[in-house]
Amino acid sequence: MFLFDCNVSFGVAPKPALSYAATAEALLAEMDRNGVDEALVVCAAQRFDSPLVGNPLLIEQTGGRPRLHPAWAILPAQTGEMEVETLLAAMRAHAVRALWAWPAQHHYLLDALTMGPLLEELVARRIPLFVPLTEYGGRAAGWVAVGNLLRDYPELVLVATDQSVWGEDRYFRPLLARYPNLHLETSHYELAHGLRDVVATYGAERWLFGSGYPTRTMGGAAMQLLHADIPPAAAEAIAGGNLRRLLKEVRL
Amino acid sequence: MKPVGMSKLVADFWEHGRVDDCPILDTHAHYGPFTGIYFPGRGEAEAMLAVMDRVGVRLAVVSGHAALVDAARGNAIVAALVAAHPERFRGYLVANPNDPEQIARDLDDFPQWQARGFVGFKLHPSMHEVSLCGEAYRPVFAYAEAHRLPLLSHTWGADGLCGTRQVREIVERYPSLPFLAGHACYGDWDAAIALAAEHENLYLELTAAYAYNGLLERMVGGMGAQQIMFGNDLPWFDSMVAVGCVLSARIDDEARRAIFYGNAARVFGL
């Protein structure tokens, strides 16, 4: 099974995980150890230092390593730090095909007022936006934020990441039913028979394999999918096919 | 791609999802529907057994979700589960400190509970909002220690009711009690590991903690593998995730086998 991990970070964080990959080379070794073929990656500097520092650093670190696909962090345009056209041009130049938002960490509102022009471009170009639910303190607040964003931008390819392990189906299933462009990743979705249940109800197309590394192990997420009680085609799609398709659909 | 540098045990699990000569004993499971979560299959026996069979969990020690709410009603439900599947389940008797009279009755009757497949006790200080060190728990600790019965308590590092400080007080007061710290005092890892290294009858149980990258290596390095218990909160979580985390850790197969079944077999007499 081709494993394409959508939720991976490397580099040194201010409060590092107990074990982590400080460099892209170390991350590749960890992927090898866990049977992960490729990964859509960010680095700690994008989140904890600044996207202005981390985005170019990521390109520098992942360059020449085709198994690692860079994703950039976004900021509002109004401060002049990240003009939309400049960002898009740089993404084209460096083949960056996905973005992450850390609105709490970076102190902005991920809404139409603050990010409207960028969000309209993401919709038009089908650029996936990864949004960690933990940015909203987790649980209900994160899903409310995701719902509000999709209400305003229903065509946005939004990947909600890092849900709580303690049972969130009652939050996210109404959103999956309403918004066909909402995607979820598997890193914290440990519910027994959960994948089987959601795949049967909503299909496999909107689930992406994610490990949550370095906070979480890659091996647990990999084993969950390798031996999931879902049809093989669904498992293949979640393992990597869906993310490949999403990245291929991007029009930079 | 296949992982690089796998041991034979890891390779066999990777290939088949289960290994018959490495059975898994789950020391932290539940049973039945619960308040804040949707369970496919309502968290009942058929759904749990399907997971256990897929992953090679030979036996799970369960406390009833209903028992966390109403001990008398819920413990009886677990007794019925064990009676229906005596080879696959054992029970923890839930003790609710808000009902000391029920605790007294259950301790008096514990030989009957044992005859119905109950092997120890389960406490949940967070849910019952009573400190692990509360007066009402003391008869349970004393009974369990006197009879060398395993006791599993929910523990959480940041929880003032059942954090590492409270666990320390209990294991110092009842040194012969086989005490399983559920979730391994989640988040307060180094203190929990140091405490387990000091107290041979304190076991760190892995539910939710297993996924924390690098933790198993730190546990085995700091306290050895003999006091780590496999647990998974089934029917909350797919046991395959927990198994994958243990397989992925940089520990040897001897440690993996101790965690998967050896320690539970020794402590629970399974």
Report on this model:
The complex is a heterodimer of chains A (252) and B (270). Helix content of chain A is 45%, strand content 13%. Chain A has helices at residues 24-34, 44-49, 51-62, 84-94, 112-125, 140-152, 169-178, 194-202, 218-226, 232-249; strands at 4-10, 38-43, 68-70, 72-73, 99-100, 129-132, 158-161, 182-185, 207-208. Chain A has 252 residues and is of the alpha/beta class. The radius of gyration of chain A is 17 Å and the shape is globular. In chain A, strand 1 (4-10), helix 1 and strand 2 form a beta-alpha-beta unit. Chain A has a 6-stranded parallel sheet. By secondary structure, chain B is an alpha/beta fold. Chain B has helices at 8-16, 45-55, 65-69, 71-84, 100-108, 110-115, 125-128, 138-146, 164-173, 189-198, 215-223, 239-248, 253-268, and strands spanning 24-31, 57-64, 89-94, 118-123, 151-156, 179-186, 202-205, 228-229. Chain B has an 8-stranded parallel sheet. The A-B interface holds A 3, 17-20, 32-37, 165-167, 169-170, 190-197, 212-224, 226-229 and B 1-5, 13-14, 17, 36-41, 47-48, 50-51, 54-55, 189, 208, 210-215, 217-218, 234-245, 247-249.
Please outline the major beta sheet of chain B. Answer: 8 strands, parallel
List the quaternary state of the chains. Answer: heterodimer
Rounded to the nearest angstrom, the distance between the terminal CA atoms of chain A is: 29 Å
Strand order of the largest sheet of chain A: 4-5-6-7-8-9
Intertermini distance of chain B: 37 Å
Enumerate how many helices of chain A there are, as a single number: 10
Largest interface: A-B, 41 and 45 residues
Helix and strand composition category of chain B: alpha/beta
Helix/strand-derived category of chain A reads: alpha/beta
**Average of per-residue pLDDT values of chain B:** 98
What share of the residues of chain A does DSSP label as strand, in percent? 5-15%
